[in-house]
Amino acid sequence: MEDYRPREIFKPFSLDTIPEDIQRIAELELHERVEEIPKCLDVLRGMLEREEDLTPCLDDSFLLMFLRARKFDCQAAFNLIKSYYMAPVTYPSMFKNFTPRSCMNVINASLHYFLPYRNVDGCAILLSRFGQWDPRALTCDELLRFNIMCNEMAIKNPVTQICGITTIADMKDFSWSHLLQIQISDVRCFVNTLQDCLPIRHKTIHIINHSSIFSVLFTLVKPLLTEKVKNRIYFHDDVSSLHKHISQEILPESLGGRLADAPNQDFYNSLLNNDESFVARRNFGYLSRRHLSI
Questions:
Q1: Ordered strands of the 124-128 beta sheet
Q2: Which residue range is the domain that position 71 belongs to?
């Protein structure tokens, strides 16, 4: 199993240069034109510089994430950046200690990580094992904070910015002991941040091994979702149904795949090596408003 490699059509998650086929996706789906990027960056940068009370990051790579997420509509990208910076003001507890090294207990539990290979459409695949969460060891707040952190790390990659993220939520063994530890305020923060505040293209969400107990949770979550996201959620009664969307070649054994059933340590290492970038995040945003929310 250690020597197994999927076919070359499945690009590695770590791919951080844009090959020709991915560039074509950017052009067709995001209306990206390489020659027009500098102009869009200048327009967006000017809008941010005029925003009162905001101390934004103005790096090209940062701004480009938001332009891609909003198909190079500068006004929409500007609004998304404002939402991104308002999230720590609106949800201060979720963004407290928002660094990978403060989440070592979640990392050691191997509950959230990106799979080593991308789907055939280039999507990065986030595996979240919510059913394996031990509420005695981790709070719901810690679990959701780390999930947001994983997503934010992934979208630093230009291929992921273009192709988006597919999420697999494995709810095996999800029980009342889990449900009773979940606060609706934490769920609302989690959903709103991922859905409305981060520059992510949410392509599909696959929920597998779900039970009637999970259905209770989903009843609470569903009203918080946009119609667009709702239409991209798939429920699977078995792994064969999941395999119609994601090849067995890039799934772990526990999901009927051919890869070793082990966390992607390379992703965790990359996350920890970028700890300083998460620390630096605190230097930007609506700083005066953030102090008022503490």
A1: 112-114, 124-128, 165-170, 202-208, 233-236
A2: 20-92
